[in-house]
Amino acid sequence: MVNLTLLGAFIPTFLFVSVTPGMCMTLAMTLGMSQGVRRTFWMMWGEMLGVGLVAMAAVLGVAALMLKFPDLFQWFKLLGAAYLTYIGIQMWRAKGKLAVPRLGTASVLLPRRTLFSQGFITAVSNPKGWAFHMALLPPFIDSKLAFWPQLLVLVAIILLLEFGSMLLYASGGKALALFLTKTNRLQYLNRIGASLMFGVAVWMLVG
Fold it and tell me: 127, 56 in Cβ contact below 8 A?
């Protein structure tokens, strides 16, 4: 059903992409501190729905294009490797700044519908998310195996990794915020992620 070799590279790649501080993770941490972890779950459901839709739509669009032009698969591998390299360079150069709310400030509890829509809109309106899934997901799908089972398994893994990462940020609260606001620590985390991106890019080129 799934190519285990591809899956072995897929999981650590998307794990580190998910856990690295970004729009959704920072939002989860911010809401976890201001709204509480339980209420932040509503944002998480909306974010995961958005990520799932973006991943499915991106891959289906690329798949439809590759059915008409089969030779494009190799080009998408090159595109994926190039995009990973670009992400790696951006992470390596990142200054290590994280926007977090002021600790100890009071906040108004938001309606559940607002939290859900906030997560959904954050996921679907992020152009980097679309580009990432369009460039990176197709190379992890084995053309010799059935398409739909592979896609569903990969998207399910992405959602599990996203959920686990957001839960970590939401429940980490003040301690995680204080840890990540230290420039050298966040920069160190970014450079580990950048090294992983470079490694997977090379693997995609030689595989």
Answer: no
Distance CA 112, CA 174 (A): 23
Is 68 part of any domain?
yes
Taking a C-beta distance cutoff of 8 angstroms, is the pair 96, 185 a contact?
yes
> What are the φ/ψ torsions at residue 144 (nearest 5 degrees)?
-85, -10
Kindly report the pTM of this predicted structure.
0.78
Burial of 49 (0-12, 13-18, 19+ CB in 10 A): middle
- Whether 106 is in a domain gets the answer no
The domain total for the chain is 1
93, part of any domain: yes
Whole-angstrom Cα distance, residue 179 to residue 173? 10
Task: Render pLDDT for 100-136 as a digit per residue (tens, 0 to 9).
Answer: 444 444 457 889 999 999 999 989 987 778 877 887 7
Q: Would you tell me how many other CB atoms lie within 10 Å of the CB of residue 120?
A: 19
Whether residue 132 lies inside any domain: the answer is yes
